[in-house]
Automatic annotation (TrEMBL):
It is an enzyme of class 4 (lyase). It is a single-pass type II membrane protein. InterPro entries: NAD(P)-bd_dom, NAD(P)-bd_dom_sf, UXS-like. Belongs to the NAD(P)-dependent epimerase/dehydratase family. UDP-glucuronic acid decarboxylase subfamily. This is UDP-glucuronate decarboxylase. Its EC number is 4.1.1.35. The keyword Membrane applies. Pathway: Nucleotide-sugar biosynthesis; UDP-alpha-D-xylose biosynthesis; UDP-alpha-D-xylose from UDP-alpha-D-glucuronate: step 1/1.
Amino acid sequence: MKRVLITGAAGFLGSHLCDRFLLEGFHVIAMDNLITGDLQNIEHLFKEEHFEFYHHDVTKFVHVPGKLDYILHFASPASPIDYLKIPIQTLKVGSLGTHNLLGLAKEKKARILIASTSEVYGDPLVHPQSEDYYGNVNTIGPRGVYDEAKRFMESITMAYHRFHGLETRIARIFNTYGPRMRLNDGRVIPAFIGQALRGEDLTIFGDGMQTRSFCYVDDQIEGLFRLLMSDCNDPINIGNPEEITIRDFAQEIINLTQSNQKVVYKSLPVDDPLQRQPDITRAKELLGWEPKISRSEGMKRTYQYFQSLPKEELFKTAH
Ligand code: NAD
Ligand code: UDP
């Protein structure tokens, strides 16, 4: 039986990866320090024979007994309000954490996939973003803690690949959404849906003309799975190229939730990228992958999930 270690397993993407790998017949070793994650995301897995959980901070030495075939390194704060609140931990998990996991992969002769991000392109001057674009990141800006941690993560991963011959995969993940996002994580989808459900106005940052391209989680997990199983060492964008302005997106959410909320405008956070859209030519050619789930279908499923949460969850929201 193949054994996979998934870090960040109690988070949004990590928990969906655990589900997928169990379904594929793997033994799943989940690891998380719960800094932004929630055990509720994986509590349904604790009864599974081939699932185990380690409560551990990956910036500390990582030890896993037995063989390991694959490692997926997903531990990291991922939403702007999280990484602005815990900037040093964000830098450490991208640097020290990644170093520890590369060391573990080397010891176990395991293949490792790291969760990089569209944020390596910063506020991009090239549109859409393809993998050969080097990016436009403000190293010393508030978002730099996340962006530079991820850029370092890519560099050290390629160094382990080149120097030690490690089998490495780099996923540049673009905005992904779906069930198990935290209602109060500050990312735009939980923020807008939470506001609609509480009967509050939707807060648009800036003039709302900035764009994002949202990928439903099931499509993302399929892309990640294919990337891990492929032989691509170079970074690959995984995201949905369907682009929308935040202003139009707020209107879509008002329509979806059939709420009569208004929108209010707040200042744009420093270094907030003005446009973002993945060029997924490489993923199509090398992985035979492209997203299948439309935004309207994905948003319907996501809204149903947030509606099904206990009412008190709604009021834990603060940002
Ligand atoms: P999340 O916050 O839901 O999950 C991250 C998990 O990592 C949490 O459970 C958290 O407790 C855990 N974690 C953080 N630091 C840790 C540490 N030092 N040791 C052990 N566990 C730690 O975020 P997510 O959206 O699921 O993102 C997962 C990964 O994917 C992150 O690396 C993120 O940078 C990357 N990513 C996500 C998106 C997205 O749209 N969701 C986009 C680009 C990249
Ligand atoms: N955003 C917004 N209102 C909110 C939360 C976010 O207008 O309440 C904007 C944010 O400024 C950004 C976009 O929505 O331009 C996506 O933000 P998110 O935090 O989801 O992701 P990221 O900026 O990391 O792509």
